[in-house]
Amino acid sequence: MRPLQADRWFRGLPVSLNCLNFDCVMNNSPPKPKGGFWQSFYRVLQLVVIGYLLIVVAALIFQRRLIYIPTRLTTEAALHEAAEHGFTPWKNGSGQIIGWKMAAGGTATGSVLIVHGNAGCALDRDYLAQPIHDAADVDVYVLEYPGYGARGGSPGKSSFFAAAEEAFELLPADKSKYVVSESLGTGVAAELAEKHPSEVAGLAMFAPYHNLAMVAQKQMPFLPAYFLLMDRFNPADSLKDYHGPVEFIVAGSDEIISPGFGRKLFAGYNGPKEMQVIAGAHHNEIAGQPPSWWREVFSFWRLHSERQSHESKREAT
């Protein structure tokens, strides 16, 4: 008798063993597919989630490098550049350069402290300092943040606030004190107004915002930036107890701080206020105003400062 050929015997079974899956013979069910669409989908989804979480962790760890973009200078280079722009070193009691001064042409009637934005350094702000200097008999001081220019230290909310507090205390006590801010500096200026409500005679805020965490979320909508932000500048809260005159200047086409954030800060402020929205202007195109413009700002500041002074005297009597 010829032996039965294996392939014929296999073909006679109800389910082919050509799949080499004996479970399918015993269960009388078709073979299970290897892989398939859903397995591939879950694998891709896993990779996407892991990648996203890595981006979130990187944003959390390196966020200060994304926010603070200083220009660093040696002391010699800073002194040389300062002389070219008409600045002299502004030093604290220990002799450390904490910023730069542009002295009034005549007898100074007040002081203006400039707290700048997140990029560059104080010496870049001659486009702010020079027109202010030319508009009134005031000494103009530009604060250098820690970690910027030739100043040591590290950038951050706490170091900025400490530096601003020291600088404000060094301004002459017998003269009016005004604070001008730019972009990120809005939070620093608002903090000074909160701590010294009776001493800050007026504020001017270029490209302001009400809450930095909201700005961050707008800039990075694909990340939970609102919750990740560590340096939470909140000018809206800081200005609640300040009632001096504030000039708000908003760039109508600001690509970094949406105009809506400046409008919101303006709407929530309860003291004397003016807002200028410069149509079509971008973030870095609004702070360079001429002396004639600044004279109007000084008039606004002084008018309301005098009114508040008279009201305070009446309340005292």
Description:
It is a single chain. With 317 residues, this protein is an alpha/beta fold. It folds into 3 domains: 1-32, no CATH class; 33-67; 71-316, Alpha/Beta hydrolase fold, catalytic domain (Rossmann fold), CATH 3.40.50. Helices cover 44% and strands 16% of the residues. The protein has helices at residues 6-11, 22-27, 37-67, 75-84, 126-135, 157-170, 185-195, 212-219, 225-228, 235-238, 259-268, 291-316; strands at residues 69-70, 88-91, 97-102, 110-115, 119-120, 138-143, 176-182, 200-206, 246-251, 273-278. The protein has an 8-stranded mixed sheet, with helices on both faces. Helix 5 packs across helix 12 and helix 6 (157-170) crosses helix 7. The radius of gyration is 32 Å and the shape is globular. The termini are far apart.
Tally of separate helices: 12
Alpha-carbon distance between the two ends:
132 Å
Question: Within the CATH hierarchy, at the fold level, what is the topology of the largest domain?
Answer: Rossmann fold
**Name of the CATH superfamily of the largest domain:** Alpha/Beta hydrolase fold, catalytic domain
Percent helix: 40-55%
| Overall geometry | globular
Strand order, biggest sheet?
Answer: 2-3-6-4-7-8-9-10
Low-confidence stretches: 1-26
Provide the residue-averaged pLDDT: 89
Order of helices and strands: HHHEHEEEEHEHEHEHHHEHEH
- State the name of the first-level CATH class of the largest domain: Alpha Beta
Count structural domains.
Answer: 3
- Secondary structure tally: strands: 10
Structural class: alpha/beta
